[in-house]
């Protein structure tokens, strides 16, 4: 006979009747003749009570010795009880110990670094579990959005020959005695693939060996990227805005409690959904900054401090467009209306979460590309396969890349991006 | 005014009326007073005809000079024509050249290695485009299956401290001066995460520095992995079989033509759906092999040659279970009914496509794990974080890993796994 276990969430909805639950001891309080166990599973927590006179002697001995994070199976009757979290309590009739945990090493007084050392155990905390569930929904929602728009999922290699410009931030791999590098973007490969599939997306690991210890950077992160044939910059910004709004809607639909637990008021996100996100040019951004007492010389990129200052005036993400061509990557084309600027944008999150997305049209013109590559000191022969895309039926197209952990950090209102990924990799952290 | 382009697939369904199409020249035939262009986009191909007297002089000049893979926009009237592929022809009224291609370097007489060198252009071939579309559906279907079963998507790091045993097949990364290794499996991380999320899956790049040049191996491939709390081996095999059957159903639903083009008879796959896949033990496999004249001494792993021989008798994938414990990875538990074998399985594809999935229950018992690790010559301190999962509420659980490109190869009946991924990485191939 196979026992039927239900989840704690289902039990809380059921409210009464006989059920079997299983999970881990989240909290315990022991009295002379009863033990309260708050039981945890992936779906939530529920209060349970074991009365000495309702279980066998052996079961009572085990219940009396229980420690948190032990695994148990509990069989009994659900009873509504307004004092219990969730309003329901399980009166245990049969107590099964699966595994008696050793004393759990994570206690309230532990340092942040200790918690990262014990990340494999800290994952069980309500804090990280809430984030991980939202993370799962974010990935699903991104993909569902693109599938619903007729995109194909496409994959570029993680191991790439690499190009000189990115040298300092590339991780080197010993590939059968040759030097290869870990990918930073799928872009060059994706631009070749749209000639077959036209509308493509991916979410894949991406790597930056940045010697940065900020709360916004990871050495390994998940990069959601799209590349679209025949699309211009304005349409691409529509796509980016709609995609993120879809993600937020899905998170609000499934994770209101998780958000509240994390300290993110769902109303903040609802507000973001209702508005059309502003699109301002780089020039307008400089004007705003100047009015706020921060003068940036034209031609300089916006730094974090300036982005944060700019965003003080906004409560939704903002597209900043038309950055100076000279400081942009070689593939971002000049704007024909104003050749000093490029047809590109950054999408900047509110509340100091920084750049979510960088996107642009891609220069269709092979001569412009070669000129820009030479100016950047690149060897043209490294780019021959890429330049081929402009030799055989070149078309207008655009694409963007989004740091998924940045989006999760903002949605969840996290203090550090390291908690937006299960096992963070940074300059100073590569274990467990 | 924004023009409205429709896809070629939509045009073939529409059959008549004025439309605008865009794409690339797939084939062209030029006559004195007309040019036939077979136009290609991501959705298919359509025959179009440009009559000299129906377009302007400039348009005719461009049409006359057209080369394959040039990009064009064609506006005109759809007419049913039984001689045209798909039964519909576009009579062009306005011809717009987007980009005149240089002579396309891929022609019929090119070697296989040349085609891999020009992979970025070869992607446009109907052969690779068909595979890439099926690949996209395979990824979507795997994820949809797990989401529908209440799994969370979870991500392990690509950069790992690594463990000694796998040394020879690990790729080494220079990580800020430290040695890290590219991941081969998420398993150790996933086993920690099920204590929070219970049912998890991923699809992520995985790396093996195998000095193998077979048609079945890639140095970088996409690894679909699951880990499930409270699940035993029989339930896990059900899950694996249902998941792959779901994938095949989705591929059949969307890609019958692609399959036929690739030489895979959809009926082969339909047959696989109808049957329950056999589950035989390692011992039974040895008996079958012996009857077929291939004697394997008990205790030896099955090699490719033996798997292929075994599969001659089957037209669906087959689960081979209960391999000898001594040759299995340390985490595969002994079968209590027969301690010489482990509670594990391989799922082997028919037609010589080899192992699709390897899976097992995971040993719950920390003493058994330590014993097996020591026997394998491992340093226990490298596994402390993993062993912690058995110290704090250990539970029964199981998991498997599937090479997605193996599945794609079998579904598409490919000659080599290198064509199941856009830009293959093998011992001898790392460009473009």
Please characterize this protein's 3D structure.
- The structure is a homodimer of 432-residue chains.
- Chain A is an alpha+beta fold and 432 residues long.
- The first copy, chain A, folds into two domains: 8-99, Nucleic acid-binding proteins (OB fold (Dihydrolipoamide Acetyltransferase, E2P), Beta Barrel), CATH 2.40.50.140; 116-420, 2-Layer Sandwich (BirA Bifunctional Protein, domain 2).
- Chain A is 32% helix and 28% strand.
- Chain A has 14 helices and 18 strands.
- In chain A, the strands form four sheets. Chain A has an eight-stranded mixed β-sheet with strand order 6-10-11-18-17-16-13-12. In chain A, strands 1-2-3-5-4 form a five-stranded mixed barrel. Chain A has a three-stranded antiparallel β-sheet with strand order 7-9-8, with no helix packed on it.
- The longest helix of chain A is centred in the N-terminal third of the chain and has 23 residues, at 126-148.
- Chain A is elongated.
- The model of chain A has no long low-confidence stretch (mean pLDDT 96).
- Chains A and B meet through strand 1, helix 5, strand 6, strand 8 and strand 9 of A and strand 1, helix 5, strand 6, strand 8 and strand 9 of B.
- Strand 8 (172-175) of chain A pairs antiparallel with strand 8 of chain B.
